[in-house]
Design goal:
Number of helices: 4
Helix content: 40-55%
Shape: elongated
Largest sheet: 5 strands, antiparallel
Order of helices and strands: HHHEEEEEH
Number of strands: 5
Strand content: 15-25%
Number of domains: 1
Distance between the termini: 35 Å
């Protein structure tokens, strides 16, 4: 399953396909991916800013010219197509970056916030280890149905 980044939607996506067996992470395994997560989301956030600028410029051209922007005769048509091409390139780079994380077993919950979960087994129960952009290590976990609001300290998993 590949991720398709749609910049005009708030990206809250569970990437795990039901027919695939999820990768189960230890806390150390999840922590080992934090540097890659930071680097990836630094890049994604930067490219998302570029994406928003390109999208705004495209909307502005459509607002100014209307449907005539799509005509080869329009003086800004070439520029419009260049912006579209750049936006497609940026989208592809974002998608490749996020797909790389997905292929490692990361569950990207919110692209805009940099929210990532990892499947983890605790006392024969599957839970999520939870990481949010800016956190230097895995510090929280939550039940699969609880979500971000239900985050608890990861030390609770170690003690039990």
């Amino acid at each position: 399953m590949e991720f398709l980044y749609l910049p005009h939607y708030r990206s809250k996506v569970d990437f795990m396909e039901p027919e695939l067996k999820p990768r189960i992470f230890t806390i150390d395994e999840a922590n080992s991916l934090v540097p890659l997560l930071e680097k990836t989301f630094d890049k994604v956030f930067e490219l998302s800013s570029v994406m928003h600028i390109l999208s705004k410029d495209l909307r502005d051209l459509v607002n100014v010219w209307g449907d005539s922007i799509f005509s080869e005769k329009n003086p800004d048509n070439k520029y419009y197509k260049e912006l579209l091409s750049k936006r497609d390139e940026v989208t592809e780079i974002i998608n490749r970056s996020l797909n790389k994380l997905h292929s490692l077993g990361c569950i990207i919950k919110d692209v805009d916030k940099g929210l990532v979960d990892f499947y983890h087994r605790h006392n024969s129960k599957t839970v999520f280890l939870c990481w949010r952009y800016g956190e230097k290590k895995i510090q929280f976990w939550h039940d699969m149905s609880a979500g971000f609001i239900g985050r608890r300290n990861v030390e609770d998993l170690v003690e039990n």
